[in-house]
Amino acid sequence: MPTTLDQIYENRKAKVIDIQGGAGIRQRLSQMGIHPGDMITMVRYGALRGPLLIEIHGSQVALGRGIASKIIVEETE
Amino acid sequence: MRIALAGQPNCGKSTIFNSIAGYKAITSNFPGTTVKYTGTRTHVFGYTCDCIDLPGTYSLTAGDLAELEARRHLLSGEVDVILNVVDASLLIRSLELTLQLLELEVPMVLCLNMMDEAQRKGIQIDVQKLSNLLGIPAVPAIATTGKGLRELFTEVLNVYGEKRKGKTLKFSKDIEAIIDDLTPLLHSEPSGGENIPSRFHAIKLLENDEFFVKEIKSIDFLNRTKSFQEKLEQIHGFPSDEVISSERHALSMNLFERASTVIHPPKKDIRIAIDHWVMHKFLGYLILAAVFYGFFNLIFRVGGYIEEPLMEFFNYWTAQLGRVFGEGSLPFFLSRGVLQGIAGGIAIVLPYLVPFLVGLSVLEDIGYLPRVAFLMDVFMHRIGLHGKSIIPFILGYGCSVPAVMATRILEFPQHRFIVSILTTMIPCAARITIIFALVAFLIGPNAALAIFALNILVVGISGKILTLLFPYPEANLGLILEIPAYQLPPLKNTLKNSWYRIREFIVIAWPILIVGSALLALMEYGGLEKSINWILSPLTHLLGLPDSVGTTLIFGLMRKELSMIMLTQALGTTEVLTAMTETQILVFTVFVIFYVPCLATVAALWKEIGKKGAVLAVLFTLSVAILLGLATRLFLNIFL
Asked: Which CATH class for the A2-75 domain?
C-alpha cells in the first residue's frame, strides 16, 4: 500500500516509489542518493514534529516533514 | 602541474589538502563570485604543483553556485589532474559524482578515503577491479592517519605523465542513441567554452541544465534539444533530468556490486549509541545547551586567565611612555596609540579569538553542527526558517562574513536574504570579545549570559518580523541535510583551519587596529575627536553614554573590536569602570552588538543579496540597536 515517507514508523523500512515536487526538490534528493527504487530506513523522529532522520545507502539524512510527505513509499517487511 | 581536489561534502578532501598544503595555503574566491576555495603551491616528489581544494559538491548540476563554479573551474583547462576523493563507506552515492567527473574527460585519480570506516561497515572493496571498471587509478587511503597518501600522489604523477583519461561509462541503449543523435548537432553551436567535451555537453542539454540551455543561440537548436528531452520523458515516464540521474545511480549501484562485497553486517558502532543521546527528543537539547554553555565558559576562563597579566603588562608600559615622553606631548599620544593597538590585538582579542576559533573548528570537524541543525529545525520553523539556517547562525559566532556566505546552502533567494540579515546580528568573535572583556570581566559572567540570551531572543523576533515583511512560499521549504558520521577531529586539520582564520586577523585586522588606534590618538591630540563626538552627541545622549564614546562607534564600523579597543583610548584609561557606570557599559555593549555590521560584512551582504539588501540590513540593525540600547537604559534605570 503506497503511502508517504512521513507515515513510516521509526525503525521500519520502506521502498521509494516516486518523488513528487519540482525539479529542485528532486535534484536535491537525488544528490543525497534518494531515487525511486531505493530502500529507506526510518531512524528517528525529531521532537515536536521536527525533522525525520533516515538512512539511505549507509548514510544518514535529515528530512523536513514537508519534504518527506512528497516521497511516495511502500512499507516493506 | 595543477591538481584539483573534488569530492562530496564530508569525504575528507580538506584533510588530504591540509596534509599536503604548507602553512601558506590561501583561501580565495573564484573571480567575480564569493565561492571560496583554498589553494596552495607545494612540492610533490620534486614537482612543483598548484593544488586547489574545490568546494565540496554532491553533484555537478548547476543546482547551486558552488557546484557551478567547481564545474566551471574543472572545465577551464586550468586543471591537469582531478583528484576525486570519495568516502569509501558511502561508495554508491559517491560514485555518482565520480561518474559526472569522468564525463569531463580530464585525467583523474580516485582516492578511496575512509577505508577503515568501510571495513567497519563490512564493505570489502576490490580496488583493482574498480580501477579497471573506471579506467582510472584507484588508491585506498585513510587521510586522517596519512595512510595511502604517498601512493596517491605517485598515481597522480603517473596519470599526469600519461595524460590518461578514464572511461566514459555508457547509459542504457535508448539514452545513448539520443546522445548520439544530439552530439553531431553540437558542432554548429557555441558550447560556452572551448574545453567542453561534446558528450558531456549533450548530456547536460538533455538534463535541461540551466547554464548550458541559456547558452543556446539558435531557436531551431533549442527546439530540437527540447524535443530530445521530451523523447526521453516519453520513454521513461520521468522528467529527463531524473532519467539521467537515475541512470547514473543505476551505474553506481552496478559498479558497487561488481567491485565490492559486503562481508559482514556493520560492526556495532558506539557512535550510533552516542547519536541516540545527542539527537534524542529531550536529552539532545540538554546536551546542546551543555555543550554551548561549556564552550563559552571555557573560552571565558582561558581568555580571562591570559588577559589579566597581559593587561597589567601593557598598563605598566603605557605609564612608562608617559614618563619618557611627558604626558600630553605628541610623541606620547602617538606611541600610546600604537601601543594600545598592539595591546588590543594581543591582550584582548587573541586570548578569546584563538580558543574560540579552535573550539569552533573542533565542533565542526567532529560533525556536531549538522546535529544542531536537526535539533533546531523545529524552532527555526517557528521564526519562519528551517534547520539549515542554524549553520550560518553558528558560524556567525565566529565571523559574520563567512556566515553570510554560508547562506548559500539555503535553496531560496528570499530565504537567504532574511538569514543573511539575521546572521549579522549574531555576535561575531569580535563582538563576543567585547561581551567577555567589558561585561563578563567587569560586571560578571551572568550579565554576559543575559546579553547572549537577549541576543537570541531579538534575532528570533527579528526573524519573525522579516518573514512577515518578506513572505515566501512555505511549501517549498524543508530540510534536506546529510548527517555525517562522527569523526575524531584530525588534529592537524583542525589546527590548520583555525590557523587560516587567525592569520586573517593578524595580517588584516591587526594592522588596521594599530593604525586606527594611532589615528584616534592623533585626532585626540588635534581635537578632531571632539567634533565627531559632538556630531554623534544626540545618539550618545539618547543612550545616556559619555560623549567620548562617539568616535569609538565610528571605528566600530571598520572592525567591531575597534569599538572596545578605542574605548580605552577614548576614555583615556584602561580601567573602564572608573569612567563608565555598569549601566553605561551594558547599554554600550548592547548597542555595539546590534548596530550596523562591520564594513567587511556589509561588503559581503552587498555581494550576496545586493545593494538593496545591504542597505536594508544597515537600517534594520541600526534601528534595532537604538531601540534596544534605549530599552536597556530604561530597564536598568528602573531596576538597578
From this structure: mainly beta
